[in-house]
Design brief:
InterPro entries: WASH_strumpellin (IPR019393)
Shape: elongated
Mean pLDDT: 84
Protein name: WASH complex subunit 5
Family: Belongs to the strumpellin family.
Largest sheet: 3 strands, antiparallel
Strand order of the largest sheet: 5-6-7
Structural class: mainly alpha
Pfam family, one: Strumpellin
Radius of gyration: 41 Å
Number of helices: 53
Organism: Paratrimastix pyriformis
Length: about 1200
């Protein structure tokens, strides 16, 4: 049953099983890093929102009660639906991983039963365990099952597993879809074990956990017996010295540690067995790595077991521990000195290495054995021993030893690989030299070649020809026999020098000496075997340090900071760590499993992340120095004038400052040259380019600096315009200085600074707006789904600045501050000046100046981000309005409103004033509960009031979609603006808020358009013309769809053009369709009634500001007229065009009714050419109608068709 034989069914079954086991563990490790946050229940918002819809296994006994409680509350139904939509796909992957463990143990038990029952002909447990491959694979199959259980419990807490399994169970609709759910529940049931710096270990753990799906005790005992007695991996060949036995048998020791939990009676009562195990495997160590760096302290883990504790007592005896510490201390000193000697330049050359292979290999074994002992035992959980070890072995000394060992291995391995690669060519070259020399000497003694005067000697001539023939016949394929022949030839060449004719000739003796040297080189060459490289690879294994190595990252960064050139030596350390990939992948590759790529990708990516983490100290140091460069260039260094007088030259030159700038620049270049000098390295299956590592590190630190500056600057606790402007100016100055300094150093770090700056600033803004807009989406986009988030260059997230802050980041705070400064309770909007002004002082609050400051602070990307966020807010307000309207009107009022509307028909008529008033008053009484959905009460100070609802919990955003995609937002979207019809909440929900957002959007669009035309006029004109031509094509399509087809859904033309148009400020927010919903009954009449009965009594005309509608009446709710008009127009535009027309017709009918009694007076006034006297309500309504047409982009004819033109003439006069 050899490894190379694929036909043996036992080997094939075991190999596939072991391959699956390693893949399952990799999947568990991968998934443990992506547990959905609601199931961790660590965030108070998650607990508040999802706490009542996430259940553990107690749900299974109270399922009906839990389901009834959820279904009885609409908010819980929506929370559960959101949880399902956002996390069900990932929960399914977790469930499949849990189920795969159960399937693994089921298949393992089936294999054991089949083997026991003789299904595999000619195979029994004895034959399998007697075969080299069989005992390896069978032991690994059982061992990996135990590892799965421990990794599952260590990385995914028991209660979290229960929550995810139940959430998936409920999301899939019950047990009918999940045939193995009971077994998965039994496997995943909480063990009450809690991993951490101080683990909480329940009684009888983990043996009770392992017993949930037990394996046959007799089989485990047989495997344990084989592990106790055999070296199943033949590692003692690579470690022949007795002092290295524990290192050679470390893999078997890990297997025994796991398997003994399947037979806990051995740990508890079998003292002799445990003594034998400890004497063989743990005589000089008590900390081991049981899988890929998961370490355990046996003194702590075996404490509950009497036999195991007693057997280990000799090892952890204070005297023995002290002896081990002293021995390894001496080894560390001696080996460090030996490594320094070997690593001295010019020592490890080819000849020296070939002459000293045994000594070098012994040094390598000693170094790796000592390094393993040090790194593992420095993690001991016993405080007394741990303190003693930490005092004796400083981690920095251990790290230096690790780096030197890695460099020594790297040099040796590289040299041997080069020798192996050129072995044939080197052999042929040396053999040719030897045969040529012997041929020359034969010719010389035959008289055919004159070296000097010599008598012809036929015997020597024939002898040298025979030697030449023998050398030419040497074949290095048989190293043993060819080595003996060469030795005989060397002796013969030494003896021939005794001949008188040769002894007296210096030239001949030199020929013979060179030939002997070449023959010696041939012996060395033939002894260079692949086994040497294989042994180096085995000895250099670092799988035990997969997790431990992260503890040494700060020390690695410290030595890099002290000396940047040490990065070149760390490359060898990184390559040594790459050996950890061999452990999980070897069986997967042998089985030719499809999991090979995913498992290799996971471990390789983790290794690359480790390298990035270590080397990120370089860009961090660069940016620390860059802060001084920024300070010098921004605050200290003055710009040179065009003309400088001779007397002022020294003062203007600012030599001291320029000297400081040059010194800082030199420091930056020194830090980066170490990484740039590294060679491209293959870590696992990922090719690591040092230049790319440097660029990623610089990008990461740049992103951190920019986001941190924006996070701190864009926070507005005072809600005052002076503070707002000051913070924006400060941020703009900071980022401008940062940008200029970054451009200054780009040549010294060999990177394109401005390109990196633009790309990362764009990514930061897009990601931030994604996260902020995520609050308005029911199906959220997580970080790993976002096209803007990156593993190599992550964009950091910061906690809220205060408890009232509902924004996810600075973009949300900036947007909400613009909304706060333009609130109706403190400001009014001037259409003519495109700005909001303070109600009392009439000073500008938000206008062109404020938007310009925003532009300087956050750039075009920031302006686009705020614009998109406002678009999502508009969509959410509209959806919430529709939700409330349906709740209030659809239930009972729709038929009554239909009857009321019929009484007013035809709309072009003029019913009696009393009848119209009676109908309107009756309808107004029925709709009192609906009016807050149009307007609502004033909010508390700021935009982060409780009235704005709970904060959403998702991460990520819109994946690059523009604000128009908010039209797909479902009416039931849960977000910070969601309301219920029972308790209408603040003005953030309502129509006037829609108008406020729309006006802000237009202000931002104007700034973007101006910037586009100023900075890129050609692009702006191209976009404008392209858009116009495309609109013509679309209109032509609707006139003749068959001949002019519409672009297909796969065609990106329209969506990509829309992005450009939005970025260039060419999108008209007032014309946008934000939502798609079914018609609302009688919406046009209800909207008219709101304006006539509810809004107009609260509005007045203020001639001092150009006849704008303002909330000026004492005791009335604050209403800003223009935002109200814009909001109403936007609301009605979301529905069929008949709603806009109907609204105008109701307005016209009311105005005709209101002016019917003044007809004669108006006619007389017009006849006499004097102003007509209209009451205030009529004048306000006329003004409203005119503004409605202006901001709704309706033609004047639409207004004149329903309202007599002479009324507007009278109104304007």
């Amino acid at each position: 049953m050899s490894t190379s034989s694929g036909s043996d069914p036992v080997r094939t079954s075991l190999l596939k099983l072991v391959s699956r086991g390693n893949a399952i563990i990799a999947e568990l490790l991968r998934l443990s890093e992506h547990i959905p946050s609601p199931f961790l229940q660590q965030d108070k918002d998650d607990i508040k929102k999802y706490g009542e819809v996430i259940f553990d296994f107690r749900y299974l006994s109270t399922a009906e009660a839990c389901d009834h409680r959820v279904q009885s509350r609409q908010d819980l139904v929506e929370a559960e639906e959101e949880l399902r939509l956002n996390h069900l796909e990932r929960l399914e992957r977790f469930y499949l991983a849990f189920e795969s463990i159960w399937k693994y143990v089921t298949d393992l038990k089936t294999f054991i039963e089949n083997l026991s029952n003789g299904i595999y002909i000619s195979h029994t447990f004895e034959t399998v365990l007697g075969d080299t491959d069989g005992k390896q694979l069978f032991s690994e199959a059982i061992y990996l099952y135990g590892v799965m259980l421990l990794v599952l419990d260590a990385r995914i807490e028991g209660v979290v597993r229960e929550r995810m399994v139940i959430a998936y169970y409920r999301g899939k609709g019950g047990v009918h879809d999940l045939s193995n759910v009971e077994d998965v529940c039994r496997l995943c049931r909480n063990t009450n074990f809690l991993a951490g710096p101080v683990p909480r270990r329940p009684p009888n753990y983990p043996e009770e956990y392992f017993a949930r799906f037990p394996l046959p005790r007799e089989v485990i005992q047989m495997v344990v017996g084989r592990l106790r007695s055999d070296d199943i991996y033949n590692q003692l060949k690579a470690y022949p010295s007795p002092e290295h036995r524990s290192t050679a048998l470390a893999t078997q020791a890990a297997m025994l540690y796991i398997m003994l939990f399947f037979v806990p009676e051995t740990l508890k009562a079998e003292a002799a067995t445990m003594r034998e195990i400890c004497d063989k495997y743990f005589a000089d160590n008590w900390v081991l790595s049981f899988y890929m760096g998961f370490t355990v302290d046996l003194a702590q883990q075996w404490e509950p077991y009497k036999a195991a504790r007693a057997a280990l007592a000799n090892t952890i005896n204070p005297a023995n521990v002290r002896m081990l510490i002293q021995r390894n201390q001496q080894r560390l000193a001696d080996l460090s000195a030996e490594l320094r000697r070997y690593l001295t330049e010019g020592v490890l050359v080819e000849d020296y290495v070939l002459d000293n292979i045994p000594a070098l290999m012994q040094c390598l074994r000693n170094c790796n054995s000592t390094l393993r002992w040090l790194m593992l035992h420095l993690t001991t959980k016993q405080k007394r021993i741990g303190d003693e070890l930490a005092g004796t072995f400083p981690r920095k000394a251990v790290l230096t030893f690790f780096v030197d060992t890695a460099q020594f291995e790297f040099v040796l391995k590289t040299l041997f690989q080069a020798l192996l690669a050129g072995k044939r060519d080197r052999w042929d070259k040396l053999k040719a030299q030897c045969t040529d020399r012997m041929t020359e000497l034969a010719e010389y003694f035959g008289g055919e070649r004159n070296l000097s005067r010599v008598t012809k000697n036929e015997e020597l001539e024939q002898w040298f020809r025979r030697i030449s023939t023998e050398i030419g016949s040497l074949d290095y394929a048989d190293a043993t026999s060819v080595g003996r022949k060469i030795q005989q030839l060397v002796v013969a060449l030494e003896e021939v020098e005794q001949f008188h004719q040769i002894e007296g000739s210096i030239q001949i003796k030199q020929f013979l000496a060179d030939t002997r040297a070449a023959l010696t080189q041939m012996i060395r060459t033939v002894h260079v075997q692949e086994a040497v490289v294989v042994n180096i690879t085995l000895i250099a294994d670092m799988s035990y340090a997969w997790e431990i190595s992260t503890e040494y990252i700060p020390l690695m960064q410290e030595i890099i900071r002290e000396k940047a050139s040490v990065v070149l030596r760390l490359r060898a350390a990184f390559l040594k760590l790459a050996s950890v990939l061999d452990f999980p992948l070897v069986r997967i590759m042998q089985a030719q499993s499809d999991d090979q790529e995913s498992v290799a990708q996971y471990y390789s990516s983790k290794l690359v992340d480790f390298v990035r983490h270590v080397l990120e100290i370089v860009p961090v140091s660069v940016f620390t120095i860059l802060n001084d460069v920024i300070d010098i260039q921004t605050n200290k260094l003055k710009e040179l004038e065009a003309r400088i007088s001779k007397d002022q030259l020294r003062e203007v030159a600012q030599l001291e400052l320029r000297g400081q700038l040059a010194a800082a620049t030199h420091q930056i270049s020194v830090f980066t040259e170490g990484i740039l000098a590294m060679q491209t390295t293959l870590l696992g299956i990922i090719q690591v380019d040092p230049r790319q590592l440097l660029e990623d590190g610089v990008r990461k630190e740049l992103v951190r600096q920019i986001t941190f500056a924006m996070h701190n600057a864009l926070y507005f606790p005072a809600h005052r315009v002076q503070d707002f402007e000051m913070r924006l100016q400060s941020l703009a100055q900071r980022l401008d200085g940062f940008k200029r300094s970054f451009e200054y150093i780009q040549d010294y770090i060999s990177l394109y600074g401005l390109k990196i700056w633009q790309e990362e600033l764009s990514r930061i803004m897009n990601y931030s707006i994604e996260r902020e807009c995520n609050q308005f989406l029911k199906i959220k986009v997580s970080d790993d789904q976002s096209e803007y988030q990156s593993t190599a260059v992550p964009i950091p997230s910061y906690p809220p600045q205060d408890e009232r802050d509902i924004s996810r980041n600075f973009v949300g705070r900036l947007t909400r501050e613009l909304l706060e400064l333009s609130q109706p309770r403190r400001a009014f909007y001037s259409h003519y000046l495109s700005a909001w002004f303070d109600l009392q002082q009439r000073s500008e609050l938000v206008g062109i100046k404020a938007v310009g400051l925003v532009h300087k602070a956050v750039g075009v990307f920031g302006l686009c981000g705020v614009d998109r966020l406002l678009g999502f807010m508009v969509a959410t307000h509209l959806n919430n309005f529709v939700k409330v309207y349906r709740a209030e009107v659809d239930r009972a009022l729709a038929p009554q409103l239909a009857d009321t509307v019929r009484e007013l028909l035809p709309l072009h008529g003029t019913p009696p004033a009393a009848v119209h008033a009676r109908i309107a008053a009756a309808a107004d009484k029925r709709l009192q509960r609906l009016w807050p959905a149009f307007l609502g009460p004033p909010p508390a100070a700021g935009c982060s009031t409780p009235s704005e609802g709970p904060r959403a919990t998702g991460h990520g955003g819109l994946g690059g979609r523009d604000a128009r995609s908010a039209g797909a937002l479902p009416p039931t979207a849960t977000d910070p603006l969601t309301i219920t019809h029972h308790h209408p909440r603040g003005a953030a929900e309502f129509v006037m808020k829609i108008g406020q957002c729309q006006l802000l959007r237009r202000l931002l669009q104007n700034e973007l358009n101006f910037t586009a035309r100023l900075d890129s006029g050609v692009l702006a004109c191209t976009l404008e013309n392209f858009n116009a031509s495309l609109l013509k094509d679309i209109r032509a399509h609707y006139r003749n769809p068959e001949k002019r087809p519409y672009p297909s859904e796969e065609n990106p033309l329209l969506s990509e053009l829309a992005k450009y148009l939005d970025a260039a400020g060419m999108g008209e927010p007032f014309d946008r369709i934000y939502i798609a919903t079914d018609p609302l009954p009688s919406l046009d009449f209800v909207a008219f009634l709101f304006v006539q009965q509810y809004a107009l009594p609260r509005l007045a005309l203020d001639p001092s500001v150009g006849h704008l509608l303002l909330a000026r009446q004492p005791g009335k709710e604050p209403i800003d007229g223009i935002p109200l008009v814009v909001g109403m127009a936007t609301l009605l535009r979301q529905f069929h065009a008949s709603q806009l027309q109907g609204f105008l017709e109701y307005l016209g009918q009311y105005l005709r009714v209101a002016t019917e009694g003044q007809r004669e007076a108006l006619a007389q006034a017009m006849k006499e050419g004097r102003p007509a006297e209209l009451d205030g309500e009529t004048r306000a309504l006329l003004h409203f109608a005119e503004d409605f047409c202006r901001f709704g982009h309706l033609p004047r004819q639409a207004l004149d068709a329903v309202i007599p033109a002479f009324l507007f003439d009278s109104f304007r006069s």
